[in-house]
Amino acid sequence: MKTRVLSKALMFGALLSMLAGLAVADVKPAPDGWAYQLPHYLMSPFCPGRTIADCSSPQAESLRLWMIVQEAGGRTRADVEEELIAKYGDVMRPAPRSDGFGAVAYLFPVVAFLAGGVFIAFYLQRQTQARRAEVGSTHAAPTAQLPLEPELERIIDEEPVEER
Asked: How far is residue 104's CA from residue 125's CA, in Å, rounded to a whole number?
């Protein structure tokens, strides 16, 4: 009976030392594995505006480690990505969806650019028509001269005329 208790204690101690070694070990994914690439792609639900790789929160670190475990377990990147988006929502997507309401994010800049172009074309057309009408009215009689101010006429008359 003593040997049984002793063997169980030794197995328990060995198990504890293995778990402690795993917890202390600095586990890094292979640079070519998807578990290393995915945190640079998905946005962090814990640090708004940052990717999971750039987020310094402990939750993001545990999420990165979870991805490593999932890759080591044989899951595909698409499965893990779907699970994360299902759990945390569309906030993890790096770009909005191109269907439904997310399509507005892609269509609005195009529509705004085209509307601005139409507005500028309309504005410039009106300005050039107004300018043509103004120029046309002043040059209606090419031989006619507009009257000068009396002071300006007096100065011109007093200047000597040079002959060529």
From this structure: 31
**What three-state secondary structure class fits 76?**
coil
Strand ranges inside 82-150, DSSP E = none
Q: Which residues pair with 51 in a beta bridge?
A: 43
Query: Residue holding tokens 């929160």?
Result: 57
Burial class (CB in 10 A: 0-12, 13-18, 19+), 51: middle
Give the span between the Cα atoms of 137 and 77, in whole angstroms: 73
Beta-carbon count within 10 A of 45 CB = 18
Which pTM was predicted? 0.45
Q: What is the pLDDT of residues 65-122, one digit of tens each?
A: 999 999 988 999 999 989 988 998 888 888 766 666 767 777 888 899 999 999 999 9
Residue type, 108: F
Q: In whole angstroms, what is the distance from residue 159 CA to residue 164 CA?
A: 16
